[in-house]
Amino acid sequence: xxxxxxxxxxxxxxxxxxxxxxxxxxxxxxxxxxxxxxxxxxxxxxxxxxxxxxxxxxxxxxxxxxxxxxxxxxxxxxxxxxxxxxxxxxxxxxxxxxxxxxxxxxxxxxxxxxxxxxxxxxxxxxxxxxxxxxxxxxxxxxxxxxxxx
Length: 149
What we know:
The protein has helices spanning 68-77, 94-105, 115-125; strands at residues 2-5, 10-14, 37-41, 53-59, 79-90, 127-135, 139-146. By secondary structure, the chain is α/β, with parallel strands linked by helices. The chain has one domain (2-146): Rossmann fold (3-Layer(aba) Sandwich), CATH 3.40.50. Strands 3-2-1-4-5-7-6 form a 7-stranded mixed beta sheet. A hairpin with a 3-residue loop joins strand 6 (127-135) and strand 7.
């Protein structure tokens, strides 16, 4: 899932899964502190929303796309100067390999990442890593800031 926030609205670009199945997003009941969510179907690597955002979140996305680096480049295109991007991704460790095996059994090939590889991909796309923490058992969460290389 890839979320991007504006001051008044959150966007959730979905993507098509291999085999034609489609990902989906769902709006929650309206809360005063939660902006309305607008679902947008498209490829996270190429979608053009026609605006930029101050906050972006990628959770459960990079491992499923063919080219994660392109998703980070496109996220940067949608980022205001100094915008923040938070990524939750699966690490390349023993538990991560179990996660990959689970998805293989269900017909999905996924990527696992080492923190240095994510930071390098993000750096090439115009993101500077501010913080990174492992999340047991196999994930990592990293925060990035947009900059002009």
